[in-house]
Amino acid sequence: MTASESEIVESTTTDAAEDMAMESSAPKQKRSREDNEDGGSKKQKVEAEEEPLDEEEKKKPVKLGYKIFSSSVQMFDYFYNLLHAWPPSVNLNKYEHTMLLELLKNGHTEPDDKIGGGIRVFQVRKHPMWKSRCFFLIREDESFDDFSFRKCVDHILPLPEDMQVKPDANKALGGGKKHHRGKSSGGRKGGSRQ
């Protein structure tokens, strides 16, 4: 083999290795050839396709507990109907317990903090601040906490914009403020009325 032949073999081997690395790291890419001035083809050019991956992921069915949900709206409807059909302050059955636990594990931003030392039961209760039905979990240590099924669903499968929680929704409902409860002098200094 001559020196020029070995350069060609090394060049071809290097190009093939680069092409294989490119193919394995970018599976959804198109290749196109461009011709140079002397009619030969030069190295392949890689162009990314315009398909957003998020759209494909939104369409994939999601298995949660015992059910498979084909859309975020279907998942939302399931938990919404459960929330409004279950009587308040009654422990949910084992089936629904598993469904809510899976929702928390897969959809909550901080599931370990919410679950804590383990969840004994789930209940539907009236939220003391918002005065609406809400899922509550009661931990093994008897502590309890509420959680938003809507936020969990949106984290697993993004909800349509009109169904998403607005970032300032708590402020609009009177939340986000510090409520001081205690004795007040009615805004007057001195404290005595006459």
Automatic annotation (TrEMBL):
Polar residues bias spans: 1-15
Domain of life according to the entry: Eukaryota
Ranges of Gly residues composition bias in the record: 184-194
UniProt GO cellular component terms: chloroplast; nucleus
Disordered: annotated span: 1-57, 164-194
InterPro entries on file: DCL-like
Any GO BP: chloroplast organization
Name of this chain's protein: Uncharacterized protein
Record organism: Psophocarpus tetragonolobus (Winged bean)
